[in-house]
Amino acid sequence: MLVRYLVSNYLRSAAGQAVRDKMESAVSEQTQNLQEMTDDREIPNCEIAIVFASHIEATGVLDQLEKIVSVQCAGFVEHTGNWNGLDVVVVEAGDSWRSIARATTAVINLYQPPWIVSAGFCCALHPKFRNGGIVMPNRVLDTQNRRLDVGFKISEQAVKETTGLYVGELLTVSEILDTPKKRKQMHKQTGAVVADMESSVIMEICRQASVKCMSVRVITEELDEQPPELMSRMMKQKTKAGKLGALSKGVFTKIAGVKEMWDMKNAAYLSSERLAKFLFGVIEQLAKTTKSSEAGLSKETH
C-alpha cells in the first residue's frame, strides 16, 4: 500500500507529469480507434488472466512474458503474451475500485478466461506475517464483513513444505493502512491477517460473471512498519500542490528520507520478482485444473 502511494506520488515529478499528460492526450485520441478495431482484430487465446493494480506490481511477470503485445485501453493497460507455454493476459487496472472493476469486466467480456488471478502487494495485519512472504488467501472480505471464498485452495501440506508461504483471510480496504495502529484495528475488527486494496472487487466481479478467481499476494509492509518521514508528510497533504511542496522541501532538507524512499521503491521491484516466481507455478497448476475439467466434460458429452 505504501509502495503504491510512493509510485503514484513521489516518483511523479512536475516535469514527468507534464510529459504523461501529453502522452495521455495522444493515447485518448487513439482509444476510440483501438476500440473500433476490437471487432476486427483476432482475439488472442487466454488461459489465465492476471489483474494487478499498478505497473510496479506487474513488472516481475511482464519481464518473463514472451511474444508480448501491449495495448493502452480506456483506463487500463493490457498485455498479452506467453508464459511457460501458457497464453496469459496481464492487466494494469489502476488504483481506484472503479478502474479495477472496469478493467476486470473488460477482460472477462473480451477473453472469457477460465481463471482470473488478483495479484500484487499487501500489508500484514498480524505480527507472524513478514515482508517477502507469499499469501494465498482462503477467503477474501471487505470492511462490510462480506466474505468470498476463493476458487482454488492450497493444501495444508503444501503450506508446511513451502518456506514463506502463508494462508489466511485477506481484507480489502478503500484507503491506505499507513500506521501500525490502523492495521491492528483492522485485524481486531475483522480477524483478517493481511490487507490489500482490490481483491474483493475483482472477486465480486468474477462471482457475478461465474468466472473462477483467486488471489496471490506478496507482503511488502509488516504490522509495525512505519512510512518514511517524508512520505508521511506528503500523505498528510490534501492537495497535489501540498504534496509537491512537502516533497520539494524534503528533497533539500532530508536527503536521508529521500534515500529511504528510493530504497523502498527498489525493494518493491524485488517483491514483484518474488511474486512472479511463485505465480509461475500457480498458473501452471490452474491450467492443469482447467484442462482436467475440460477433459471430464468432453467424456460426459460423448
**Alpha plus pi helix count:** 10
Name the average pLDDT.
79
Main sheet characteristics: 12 strands, mixed
SSE topology string: HHEHEEEHEEEEHEEHEHEHHH
| End-to-end distance | 50 Å
Radius of gyration, in angstroms, nearest whole number: 20 Å
Approximately what portion of the residues adopt beta-strand conformation?
15-25%
Please mark out the parts with pLDDT under 50 across 5 or more consecutive residues, or reply none: 10-39, 295-302
The coarse silhouette is globular
Estimated helix fraction: 40-55%
The count of β-strands is 12
Structural class assignment: alpha/beta
SSE map:
Layout lengths: L1 H9 L3 H24 L10 E5 L2 H8 L3 E7 L4 E7 L2 E7 L4 H15 L3 E10 L9 E2 L3 E4 L4 E3 L6 H6 L3 E2 L2 E4 L7 H11 L3 E3 L2 H11 L2 E10 L7 H8 L3 H14 L1 H46 L2
Parallel strand pairs: 1-4, 1-5, 5-12, 6-9, 7-10, 10-11
Antiparallel strand pairs: 2-3, 3-4, 5-11, 6-12, 7-8
